[in-house]
Amino acid sequence: MPLNHEHQITILKDILSEHEADCCGTVSECEQIERLVKSLMGNDQVHPQVKSVLPDIYAYGQNGKYSADLNSHILSHQQQLSEWVNQLT
């Protein structure tokens, strides 16, 4: 059974919150961020305010996936992570 967009947003918020709290993450989490954002961007039920922040979150996931130092990448986005989590609420 596929996840609905509310569940996808919850998972996305969880990953971003963990990155913010722990200042570390994995490449697979970055790939999951990309998949979730792609799905949410294509869903007409997602609120426009949420959709407006998704391209930045996608770029964060993609850049993190290819980063030579993922933990530094996450650390450099601490402020944005907090803002994104709040905007996804």
Biggest beta-sheet profile: none
The multimeric state of the shown protein is single chain
Derived structural class: mainly alpha
Alpha carbon gap, first and last residue: 24 Å
Protein model, in words:
The chain is mostly helical and 89 residues long. The chain has one domain. The chain is 75% helix and 0% strand. The protein is built from five helices and no strands. The longest helix has 18 residues, at 5-22. The protein is globular and about 35 Å long. The protein starts with a helix and ends with a helix.
Q: Can I get a quick summary?
A:
The chain is an all-alpha fold.
Q: Which structural traits does this protein have?
A:
89 residues; 5 helices; YtzH; mainly alpha
Topology:
Blueprint: H1 5-22, H2 27-41, H3 48-65, H4 70-75, H5 78-87
Helix pairs in contact: 1-2, 1-5, 2-3
